[in-house]
Each structure stands twice: as C-alpha cells, then as structure tokens.
Amino acid sequence: MTEEIIIAGFGGQGVLSMGKILAYSGIMQDQEVSWMPSYGPEMRGGTANVTVILSDSRVSSPILNEFDTAIILNQQSMDKFESTVKKGGILLYDSNGITRHPQRKDITIYRIEAAAKASETGNTKVFNMIVLGAYLKIKPIVKLENVIKGLKKSLPERYHNLIPQNEQAIQLGMDNVKLIQKV
Amino acid sequence: MKELRLMKGNEAIAEAFIRAGADGYFGYPITPQSEVLEYLMAQKPYETTGMVVLQAESEVAAINMVYGGAGCGKKVVTSSSSPGISLKAEGISYMAGAELPCLVVNVVRGGPGLGTIQPSQGDYFQSTKGGGHGDYKLIVLAPASVQEMADFAKLGFELAFKYRTPVMIQSDGVIGQMMEKVELFEQMPRWTNEEIKKISPWATVGKTPDRERNIITSLDLDPARQERHVYKLGAKYKEIEENEVRFEKIQCDDAEYIFVAYGSSARICQKSIEIARAKGIKVGLLRPITLFPFPKKVLNKLADQVKGMLTVEMSLGQMIEDVQLAVNGKVKVEHYGRVGGMIPSPDEIVAALEQKIIGG
Hints:
The structure holds two protein chains of two kinds. In chain A, about 35% of the residues lie in helices and about 25% in strands. In chain B, α1 packs across α2, α1 crosses α6 and α10 packs across α13. The chains are: A alpha/beta, B alpha/beta. At the A-B interface, α1 and β2 of A face α7, β8, α10 and α13 of B.
C-alpha cells in the first residue's frame, strides 16, 4: 500500500502540521513516510502545501506530480492541484472561499465544511483536525489510536491537555464529510 | 534500543552533530538550512555534552572559528547554503592546505548569486572541483535521505580525522526540508584533552618539552617545501580515491539504460524507474554517495552493459563531465535537469530518457 497525498491551503490553516500528524501516525504503525513542504516565502495568509507519502515499502521520490488524494483548502490550491489528482483518485475540499468548485468528472469528490464547523465549535484552531477526520473517514489508512499517538509525538508536552479537543474535532470531521461525486 | 523520530534533514544532521561528540558548531543562518542552527540552539548541547553552539557574525567568521577549533584537534562543524559556502571558500582552502579535519555542510539552493531559496544541485563544481583556490580536494558526501543526513555527520567526522582533511556534506533544499523517519545512533562522548593528544598529535594544544612546537599554517614561502607539501596532499587524495568510493546501485542488474543521480535527484529517479519499467524500459540507477571520490570504475564497467546513461542533476549539467570522463566515450551520456530552484518531476525524467537517450 502506498498513499500519496497533497494537502494545500493558506499558511496558518495548519496544512503542514496536519501533514506532520499524518506522517507520525504512519510511523506509529511501522510505515515508511515522507513529508515534503513547500518552503518558499510562505507566511500566514500566503499559500502553503505539503506532500505526504505513507507506504509499506521504501518511499522513492518525496516530490510527485500526481497524487492519490488532494486535500484542498483554498481557491489558489484548487486551481493548482485539481489537475494533479490521479484518474480515479480523491479530491477532498472545504468550500469556504471557493469560487470555482472542482470540475473533473474522472475523480471522486468529497466536501467538508471544516471552517464552518470549526467556528461552530468556537475554536477555529481545530480546523485542520476536522479536515483530517474527514480524510480518515474516506481513507482509514491510519488507525485513530495511532493518530492520537502521532499527536502526542508532534505536539509539545505542554499542549497534551488539548488532545481530547483534537480527537473531538477529528470525530466531527468524520461525521460531516459529504460525498459529492463518485467514480 | 533504536530510537525512531520524524525529523527534517536539517534537524537530523544537527542532532547527529551532538551525538557524534562534536565540540563546536559555528554558523550563520540562511534558508534553506537555518533549522540546523535553530535546532542546536533549542537543544542547548552546551548544557549537556559541553558542545559549543555559536551564531557567528558572518559566514567568514564562522569558518575561521572552525579553523581555530580544528587546529586544536577539536571536532568542529559549520553549515550554510550556497552563497554562504562561497563566503566560506577561502577558509575551506586554508584548512585543506593546513590539513585540518572539519565538517562543512552545504544545503544547496538555486544560484548563481543570491539566486533563490529553493533546492538546487548547482554547487557540484564548487564542492568537487575547488570552490576555493589551489590544488585541493574535499571528500564530498551526498545524502539522499534524512537517515543519511544523520549517518553522514558521523561518517564525515571519521573521514575528516582519518585523512586530516575538510569533509563536505552536499545536501540540498529537498533533503534539508523534508521529514522522514530516522533512526538515530547513540550518543558518543566528546574526546578528552588526553584523547585529542593521542588522536591528533599535530594539534596545537600546548607545547610539551618532549617535542617541537606544532604549527598550523597554510603558508610556506619556500617553494621547494611547498611543492613537497602539495605532492603530499596529492598522494592523500589518491589514497582517498583508492579507498573511499561509495555508491548505491539500484536495479542495475538487467538495466539497458541507467540514470546517474545523487541526493534528491536520485530519489526522484527511483520513481522514474517505476514509471519507466511499467512501460517496459529497463532502466536502473547509479547513485554516487561520494561525489569525490567519484565512482568512476563502476560507471566504466556499467558502460559495457548499457546502451546509454542519463545524468539527472538540478543544474545545467555539472556531474555529467565526471560521468563522461568515467565512461570515456564507450556509451552515450546526456544530461537532464532543472535549474533556478525548480525540481524535475519523475515523468519529465522518463520523457528525457526517451527523447535524449532511447530515441536520440
């Protein structure tokens, strides 16, 4: 099994940390992983993306031009990455701020209203965990218990009291992801 | 007990400096390698192993601090990215001349000039053919994974002290910035002053009555003596070429074509191999791990087996010159690369193989 994912959105949305948690979760279940960020002059409000690969065998290239799954969190990323999803692959997106919804007919499309759900909870910082939950509902490639272990590894200890909130956010994402188009 | 961590290449190499028992790190921040200094400052090894971590006022200062530390037989290291390495080039040449062991890490970014902060491999000539002035060579290690970033820090120190020479680790923005699983080696103790005297009897650690004073210099105004010194350096580089060639062969056994690539390009080529083999093209990869000494013999041998070689490097074509020399006209060799911080995709590389080598 190899899963090649691009996660793309605004800097500050937690794109890179979501990828890191996913990568750590993979390590927790003995998978090979790679996490390759865009590291240009990104900043809060600019665009940010990360390529995450989880595999049962050695990861070859950390840089890819097509993906099994694209998780898209803003319009710029939709414009750039919709075309990079493999035929028959998955596109998961949040419609917040999206002016042009995905057009392709040869991929499976899911939507998660993560920004809206996050503001309902009163804690917009769990936005990325809602997205992660939605993704894990679609592709349960890592077990929830390993995600929690991954969270513990990637969060500094002083934030470990926030893990239950993150777990709830993951659940919220799992419960609210909607299938838009299936191929 | 193996300790697995998810780390950036830059963090892994910084952790490895501490674990390898380094005495000092002297650096100056520059993207894409600033995490090396940041990580060391956060770890505060000066409170545990006693390793000094210092942000110098400039790259020139940093390399000269390394010169001073190395002259005293200490395990010292500096890191930077391309424009910073150009600034350090004078110091590196001096250290090669003075036969001082040290580690220099270059996390290469796009050039020339300030260029860009994105990955590149355009410093191959600088690392392997000079960079600084004079007849000298560096041992150049090219890691292709986060694991190798950690492992080569340890190996680099071993080679530096074995041959009394600066060792360059030539990485790039991809390997420095990416995170992978890494298994860290165990903490090694720093050398005591007594151990330093035994390991490096040439070091300037204070004259004792039973020997002449040790002098660290790269200057000798007597041309006859300087000539003898340069011949000695030359003999050392020959010995390194005999003993220290390292490479990895991937799917070369049945290959009709091979990619020659190091560092992040070698990783991307492995994906290209998957794509090409799915199309029925039998291609393999020869990955030089040491850029100097270059794996000439194995390439010359492979030239008898394959129909063509494509060097893949994020440059206008630098390593290709060494590959051409190695195969000595036996087989067609072409280059494919992207520059300016752009990274070739696995598909592009397969297309280049088809156009330049198979169809060309």
